Amino acid sequence: MRNYDFSPLFRSAIGFDRLARIAEHAAANNGNSSYPPYNIELLGENRYRITMAVAGFSMEELDIISEGEKLLIKGVRKESDTERKYLHQGIAERGFERTFQLADHVIVTGANLENGLLNIELVREIPEAMKARKIEIASGRMLESEAAE
Questions:
Q1: 33-77: per-residue pLDDT in tens?
Q2: Which residues of the chain does CATH 2.60.40.790 include?
Q3: 72: closest CA among 98, 36, 34?
């Protein structure tokens, strides 16, 4: 396994230490299963959608948990009363857990299950205090006169 040194990237960046943890986590989970398959779509400047193929799962068998900067999607198959004999079983019937790391200020706004696809809607809501604002520049004379008051 390779170890990456991110320190040169952080020489001029302040507060991005979480990025290194995310990269390390992604590298450590490189061998994880790709089940179930999913897409991540960019719908607009601050809107996203995760679409996950969960054929055979009912709404009662799926859980979506958003906690802090993590989104956990879990599928737990209920035990079937009927025993089946398969000649070929190509549809996976196993449970799964998939975790996504969310960026700052990204929240889940909704989810729906349609035709075996689970769609999870996400939005980045940047607080007003975090948005760019223009800073007025005062002249040195103005500051001196304000200080005298």
A1: 688 999 999 999 889 999 999 988 999 999 999 998 899 999 998
A2: 36-148
A3: 98
